[in-house]
Amino acid sequence: MKTVATVAALRQSRSSWVGDTVAFVPTMGNLHEGHLTLVDRARQEADRVIASIFVNPTQFGPSEDFASYPRTLEADLEKLASRGCDLTFVPAQEELYPRGIDAFTTVDVPAVGTGLCDASRPGHFRGVASVVTRLLNAVSPDIAVFGQKDYQQLKTMERMVAELLLPVSLVAAPIAREPSGLAMSSRNGYLSDAQKQQAGTLYRTLKQIRDDLVEGDQSWSEQREVARSQLRQAGLEPEYLELRHPQTLELPTPGHAEAWVLLAAVRLGGTRLIDNLVLPTPVNVR
Ligand code: PAF
Q1: Ligand 1 neighbourhood includes 150 CB (under 6 angstroms)
Q2: Averaged over 138-150, what is the pLDDT?
Q3: Exposure of 260 in the CB half-sphere (CA atoms within 13 A)
């Protein structure tokens, strides 16, 4: 696997693959099995795979963990190579933000769905959209793979690509989970083993809500209250627990059956965890 740090070197390598299709996996490094399943998916989708590793400063809020975000470049490159990645782009900040990050060209996608992660992380999706646009323009992939774990991010990227007419197809890869059910995330590294077990309650709670909604046992508002108190009892402080339209992330319309998506964010100690679950069948929510 080749590693390049500049857009010029990236484009030069890519241009030698005449006629090959290219799939791209953007990451912030500190790779875990979840990221590697995105690389596997990219491998299935195209002849060549490019990954990027860049801890994007513009998507972190002032009180978030940009400075302490784990940088594990050597291990990340080994993992990518072992899964058949052809080329990894590891730009320095100046490569993507040549004039710094106080005033940079932004891409602002109007919020997809009100609230959710956008409420507690103002400016986050502007940072994500701004960096992903730069990365897509640098890589020019046929396909880009995003994890379904960051569901609002995925929908924001889909809207951005559609509205800016970016010539790339997005592929959504399913959530990879720990044996406890905990969705894999770089931030799980902040959790102790005991907390990782505890955090499995989030997925169990989402599955319980899904089953109850599909069976039509309870109204959504009743269920949400029960689920929020279950999460609290397990030591998980809910930030949001929402049922939304799977594409627009708008609130459910009474009388309209849809395969809604359940979305949650909780705090466990100092760590924020997100997860989601798409209902298997359309449900008319009471
Ligand atoms: O999902 C991530 O890891 C990041 O938000 C991304 C897409 C790599 C942009 O920095």
Answers
A1: yes
A2: 98
A3: 25
**What value does the mean pLDDT of the chain take?**
96
Instruction: Give the pTM.
Output: 0.96
Name the pLDDT band for 216 (thresholds 50, 70, 90): confident
d(CA 111, CA 158): 12
pLDDT at 286: 82
pLDDT at 247: 97
Identify the weakest region by mean pLDDT among 25-29, 44-48, 63-67. 63-67
Q: Which long-range contacts (CB under 8 A, 24 or more apart) does 275-278 make?
A: 275/149, 275/175, 275/183, 275/202, 275/203, 275/206, 276/148, 276/149, 276/151, 276/175, 276/206, 277/203, 277/206, 277/207, 277/209, 277/210, 278/246
All residues at 6 or more sequence positions from 231 whose CB lies less than 8 Å from its CB, including other chains: 201, 202, 205, 237, 238, 241, 264, 266
Q: Is 22 in contact with 48 (CB distance < 8 Å)?
A: yes
Ligand 1 centroid to Cα of residue 27, in Å, is 5
Assess whether the C-beta atom of 39 lies below 6 angstroms from ligand 1. Answer: no
Residues 6+ apart with CB under 8 A from 76: 27, 29, 30, 31, 53
